[in-house]
Amino acid sequence: MEFVTLNNGVKMPLAGFGVFQVPDSEACEKAVLDAIESGYRLIDTAAAYMNEEAVGTAIKKSGVPREELFITTKLWIQDTSYEGAKAAIEVSLKKLGLEYLDLYLIHQPMGDYIGAYRAMEEVYKVGGLKAIGICNFYPERLADFCETVEIMPMVNQIELHPFFQQQKALDLMKEYGVVPEAWGPFAEGKYGIFTHPVLTEIGKKYGKTAAQVALRWNVERGVVVIPKSVHKERMEQNFDIWDFALTSEDMKQIAALDTGHSEIVNHYDPNFVKMLHGMKIHN
Prior knowledge:
The chain is of the alpha/beta class. The protein is 42% helix and 13% strand.
């Protein structure tokens, strides 16, 4: 396992396990246990995934010392305000059965996220959150945010894969000392990523799959990756990316795959924003 050091000195694993779209408690618990057994120590969940309790149960059953784990969860739009964040943090801690979170993120750049971040800063200062950050903040939103808040965010989790590379966003994050984290590192299966000819040919040189090449490419850019799978064999493959390195020619070939846009989400679409606001995770 390799690590990246956040701007507050906290070490974060460069590869973790995500549980998006695994709402079934039994399946989620098993997946997290399998991931931990496979070597993962970063587990990424969110209030909106509706599986924090299952993640917490798996953490407890794993027997791995708490200090060896890096647990991330996220604040949903419904609670994105100062008071909402204060309450939501407590709810997430209770569901996960934890005394502190290693990383807490604002899930979407919507609602009163400045007010929410003020609450997060306060909890961070007393040790309830070891690191704080944001998700889905595009460059212009990230710049405004970083110029406004007291404590610079440590992480910005955004969509990053070979077909949506967001180099401009990475450059700005580097300027502000914010670590990029990739959600959807496999583009949610789009673009034929698992059999893509360019990624497959590169992988053949190293005895690796196209998926492993896609993950290694992001890691070599300093991006934390959180691939998801409910199959232990795939989990193990996704974690087996530390024994090879891509050449500059490999990186150049992958750079040519960038489409410059997402085919998964569109935060600039008012209807998408309305839809996210309409998603309620509690009464």
